Amino acid sequence: MTEMTDYTYDAEQFKETFEREFTWIAGFMRNVRRFGKKTALIDPALSKSWTYEELNADSNRLAHALQKDGVGCGSVVMMQLFNSPQFCFGYLASHKIGAVCNPVNFQLSPGETAEIMEHNKPKVFLYDTDIMATACQALKISRHQPEIILAVRGVHGAALPEGHIDYETYVGGCPDREPETDFEPNIYRESLRLQTSGTTATPKGVPFNQINEVFSAHNLIIDLGLTSRDITMNLTPWFHRGGIHTTGPATIFYIGGTTVILRAFAPNPAVKYITEYQITYLTAVPAVLHLLCTALERYPADVSCLKGILSMGAPLEKEACIRFMRLLTPNIYNGYGTTESLCNLFLYPWDLPEMSGYTGRACVDDEVRIIKYYDDRRAEPEEVVAADGKEIGEVIIKCPAKSAYCYAGNPEVTKEKFYKGWLYTGDLGTWDAEHYVKIAGRKDDMIICMGENIYPARIEEVINRHPKVEECIVTSVSDKRKGEIVVAFVIPKDASLTISELVEYCGSSPHLSAYQVPKYYRLVDRLPQTATGKKQHYIARQQAQQDFEAGRMKRK
After folding, report:
1. Which DSSP symbol is given to 256?
2. Which of 485, 24, 432 lies closest to 215 in space, CA to CA?
């Protein structure tokens, strides 16, 4: 592609300034200068807070320590940390020295952690001592060994293995001035690498550049109406896109607001922090919001400080939405997106609760389409399905500001998922004449019974309406005659719930066709989910097949 030169004005200074200076870290440093004495970060567990100047100083100490050990431009800094001050220091220090911050799920198995380590080849590995066993086992089996292993002291202290360095010892004595660098900042430089949630496979590395981070912050600032006066708290981990880039550090530090650390979700402390710190915005998945509401029903508290809650990671059903609006705030937002693209569909308070069940309409800078779904080829972006709320197709997303349009070191999957500027999500859904989208499930989750395509999300919505049901996941088991048959795992809300009741309820539901009604059920205590609250249907399908063959799935 030839560079365009026929401008009607001299664009050189604009291009040079924009590409060099419109970076996320430049935005943060503006806040250090103009909001220096303002509180940026609060850690209730430590009864400690940081102003923007103090947060910058602690991040600089880590930056200097890393630079001294040769960590710099392009080095990967892998962090397996809970929400914590050190998470913020690592994120900021990486930005400052041109390194790539790579947060990963602290709930991963040693094998999964080792696989990510081998793929991303971090020079630095920071882990929390509360997951020391996982970290040590991952390091033992990984074919790649980080040069620097830092241990952040968790809730439970522990003696460190040989070669592991205590974080505080590592940064001790390092200066708090700005680190000197020998690279030219620009908007295309990779600054963050997240891992996909892994709902269908091993997590993939998703790179983000500086401009992706800026516009990710802008997305949430616009859609939620965030300002520098807001105080936020994530009820979800920061290691995923819906954590760090919603009301987490990436957006709040960019706008000059304040964020409160919740190391791990527990309902009662969460309510306490909301009231004590006058939280204005929360991000959570519906299951967590239900727990928060239950805590408020048992121990009422004044949470009128809440200006809004962003619900993500799972469909928002009408009764749940009404409950959240009654007990928490009338301003409920529902967001849909992916690790690769952040939020792309939104339901706003004025859409709810009437539009519950829908996923939303495209965000201001994004475009979302529902296109034909073929078994033997990929549909073109122009092959849209009817906007009638009935015809099901694949959800594709165009969000040029928030995606780098690739996976790190994975050209095969990049070619499969990104096409002509669109992300092919693998999610199936419908849209109506006003382009409100409703998700039906994933291509991978679709059940085919006697030639009929069955989408689990629709059946789950019906089962979850049962007054004795807390949550469910619908999947399938193989059947010689029908190909697949529908089954369901159900968490009871009421201990008196029986499988016979579920059989009767689903069999008589006007919302389910005969072929959609589950043929077998199992009552369980929990469902397979990612840390972001997304149901893992592929794991449920494996478990269902094992349970079916062992006789644990029941019909009455």
Report:
1. T
2. 24
Nearest to 363 by CA among 344, 342, 386: 344
Angle, CA of 357, 450 and 536, to the nearest 5°? 45
Angle between helices 286-298 and 318-327 (to 10 degrees): 40
Q: Look up the pTM and report it.
A: 0.84
pLDDT averages per 10-residue partition of the chain, 556 residues:
73 95 98 98 97 98 98 97 98 98 90 91 97 94 97 87 97 97 95 77 85 97 97 94 94 98 94 98 91 95 98 86 97 94 96 94 96 90 96 95 95 94 94 94 78 80 94 91 89 96 93 86 92 80 93 92
Structural domains present in the chain: 53-209 (3.40.50.980), 265-442 (3.40.50.12780), 451-550 (3.30.300.30)
By the 8 A CB rule, do 165 and 173 touch? Answer: no
3-state SS assignment for residue 292: helix
The C-alpha atoms of residue 171 and residue 62 are separated, in whole angstroms, by 6
Can you tell me the distance from the alpha carbon of 195 to that of 79, in angstroms, rounded to the nearest whole number? Answer: 12
Which long-range contacts (C-beta less than 8 Å, at least 24 apart) are formed by 539-548?
A: 540/473, 540/475, 540/489, 541/475, 541/476, 541/477, 543/489, 544/475, 544/476, 544/477, 544/487, 544/489, 545/477, 545/478, 547/522, 548/477, 548/487, 548/520
Rounded Cα distance between 464 and 494, Å, is 13
